[in-house]
Amino acid sequence: MALKERRVAFIGAGHITRIIVDNLIATGTVSSRNLIASDPDKARLKRLSERCQIAMAQDNCDAVKRGDFVFINVPPQSVCDVIDDLKREQLPADKLVVSLAAGITMDAYRCLGDSLPVVRALPNPPSQIGMGIAALAFNPYVDDDQKSEVFELFASLGETVVLAEEKIDVVTALSSPAATYLFFQSLIDAGIRAGIDRETSTKIVHQTIVGAMEVWKTRQVSPHELLSEASTPGGVSVESIFTLEKYAFRAAVTEAISDGVLKARRLGDAARRA
User: Fold this and answer.
1) Please, which residues have CB within 8 angstroms of residue 41's CB and are 6 or more apart in sequence?
2) Can you give the C-alpha Rg of the chain in angstroms?
3) Which DSSP string do the residues of the chain spell out, in sequence order?
4) Which domains does the chain possess?
């Protein structure tokens, strides 16, 4: 069966489901007639259904019955309730669960079937425009054909990487655009402080960031090499780098990501204890 004809069910009709549905439909990966969602918030479910022209399930079990792929797109603290719902009916062996619930391990779904194929996935916010990166982990029961279809599904959101499950929390912190947006805003503010108006400063910083990343993408060399090329001895860039290093710029970024990883793990632990 072609992926376009597969039925994809979503448990949870919130923001991440809307992003995935929008991209699946926009890219023609799956037809809207083969998408279905469930959500205890019936008003939210209806809004998604009317906006994207997808089916509404009566409840979680109904969604699972009608889907070949089942996305669990709920907050971590709601996963236990979803699993309790699904335990009421034995999941057929041909179902594949894709869990996007932060911090919830694949083992949490083992009670739904000893050989249940489960994928743990983490797309990041730029996925909303098809420019994201999604980390994927597979349990041993996901076969090669299923993996190929999962890759095709997530291709509508951007790029993918496959990692061991214990690395997913690292991706949660590393793939967040928050630090990038903060850096972007900081450069804009620095331009304003130096006397450039906000609109012009924003344009300069935006094009500098985009252009710098395109240079790296085109040449695929180490950032260290590009730093060296951009840093004329005794010049402006060297002075700026010296000041950033004086204030431990790289150490701060590294520490920020490390703290984000710890936070992701604590959130997962709290959800599993709940």
Assistant:
1) 13
2) 22
3) --GGG--EEEE--SHHHHHHHHHHHHTTSS-GGGEEEE-S-HHHHHHHHHHHT-EE-SSHHHHHHH-SEEEE-S-GGGHHHHHHHHTTSPPPTT-EEEE--TT--GGGGGGG-TT--EEEEEE-GGGGGT-EEEEEEE-TT--HHHHHHHHHHHHTTEEEEE--GGGHHHHHHHT-SHHHHHHHHHHHHHHHHTT--HHHHHHHHHHHHHHHHHHHHHH---HHHHHHHH--TTSHHHHHHHHHHHTTHHHHHHHHHHHHHHHHHHHHHHHHH-
4) 3-169 (3.40.50.720), 178-265 (1.10.3730.10)
Q: Are strands 118-123 and 132-138 parallel, antiparallel or unpaired?
A: antiparallel
Considering the entire predicted model, what is its pTM?
0.85
273 — pLDDT class (breaks 50, 70, 90): low
Residues 38/11, Cβ–Cβ less than 8 Å: yes
3-state SS, one letter per residue, for 13-74: CCHHHHHHHHHHHHCCCCCHHHEEEECCCHHHHHHHHHHHCCEECCCHHHHHHHCCEEEECC
The pLDDT tens digits of the residues spanning 73-116 come to 998 888 888 998 888 777 777 789 999 988 888 998 988 888 89
Mean of pLDDT values over 217-226: 92
